[in-house]
Amino acid sequence: MKRREFITLASAAAAAWPLTARAQQPAMPVIGVLNGVSAADWVHPMAAFHRGLGEMGFVEGRNVAIEYRWAGGQLDRTPALAADLINRKVAVILVGGGVPGIRAVIAQTKTTPIVFTTNTDPVAAGLVASLNRPGGNATGVTGLGGELAAKRHELLHELIPTAKKFAVLVNPNNPDTMQEAMQGVQAAVRRFGLEFVVLRAGTPDEVETAFAIAMEQRVAWLSAHDVYFESRREQFAALGLRHALPTISGSRDSVRAGTLVCYGSDAADLYRRAGVYVGRILKGDKPADLPVEQSTKFELVINLKTAKALGLAIPESILLRADEVIE
Questions:
Q1: Longest dimension (CA), the chain
Q2: Which of 46, 99, 136, 214 has the fewest other C-beta atoms within 10 Å?
Q3: H-type alpha helices, the chain
Q4: What is the 3-state secondary structure (H, E, C) of 202-270?
Q5: Is 55 exposed, middle or buried (0-12, 13-18, 19+ CB in 10 A)?
Q6: Domains of the chain (ranges plus CATH)?
Q7: Would you call 188 helix, strand, or coil by DSSP?
Q8: How far is CA 177 from CA 223, 310, 318, in A?
């Protein structure tokens, strides 16, 4: 072989080696994230999700990629968003922000692993066979919101013990949370003999109308917790102040936006646990073998600035129990 030919072949081999080496490296796994709210609404829970992933050794951009899909409160978009992630052959899907979104993912794949976060009883909603043995390709973390709905109404009664008439706002487009809210109402009626006005809203205009009706009905409080309402938290806070109507929700971020008080599962805790589960699945665990975990951390947050604007004095006994007081 001539010297010139040898140099040419050697150079070509050296140039090709990095390409070959790269081709032999395993592809970076991709996580699909689907949520019923918007990215701006879910900053704190997603930060907790990344912490959970980090506990399992996964860091976005380093050894795992993430495809995000946000429904922005429009639950009817979730089936198409779910199909898009499944078609992209993601390794696992994290889905949260309402049972409709979770069902949309489960209905479209029996093979892609799914980790959900929900405040609905996943067994009653038909998402899993049981908490201990989920079966199928889905597992997750639940806050069991039906029980919390009853607790919120107990909190209402404690905040204004002389009041007898309250309003509960439900989203007709999300029958699961609507049913849970009604269960909470029934429990409060049985225990305290309270009167409730049930209002329905699934659009921004209907939310405006609901607050106006609540004011006309002279209710003492309005209780609402739903993924769509979470996407409208600034509107809720503004309407509460405009109509002098104290509002309770299930989300810390809603209180940061100006709602008076929240009581609910710690969303950061739910999403950190979900991150751990996604990491375990990436390492080889099967969803069917991972029991659905139940929330053990709950939070009571009060916005004293809003209370002052509403002319409402929060009892000291409640302030002492609060996990956070915004002043």
A1: 102
A2: 136
A3: 3-24, 43-55, 78-87, 99-108, 145-159, 175-192, 204-216, 227-230, 233-242, 252-257, 267-282, 304-310, 316-321
A4: CCHHHHHHHHHHHHHCCCCCEEECCHHHHCCHHHHHHHHHHCCCCEEECCHHHHHHCCCEEEEECHHHH
A5: middle
A6: 30-143+266-296 (3.40.50.2300), 145-265+299-326 (3.40.50.2300)
A7: helix
A8: 12, 28, 26
Q: Can you give the pLDDT of all 327 residues of the chain as single tens digits?
A: 444 444 444 444 444 444 444 444 458 999 999 998 889 888 999 999 999 999 999 999 999 999 999 988 887 888 999 999 999 999 999 999 788 889 889 999 999 999 999 988 899 889 999 999 998 999 999 987 667 777 887 888 888 888 878 888 998 888 877 877 787 778 777 777 778 889 999 899 999 999 999 989 888 888 877 888 888 889 999 999 999 988 888 888 899 999 999 998 898 999 999 999 999 999 999 999 999 998 888 899 999 999 999 998 999 999 999 999 998
> How is residue 234 written in tokens?
């600034």
The b-or-e profile of 239-251 (16+ CB within 10 A means b, else e) is bbbebebbbbbbb
The Cα–Cα gap between 191 and 125 comes to 26
Q: How distant, in Å, are the alpha carbons of 116, 173, 183 from that of 176?
A: 15, 9, 11
Burial readout 118-144 (b: 16 or more C-beta within 10 A, e: otherwise): bbbbbeebebbeebeebeebbbbbbbb
Task: Specify the length of the chain in residues.
Answer: 327
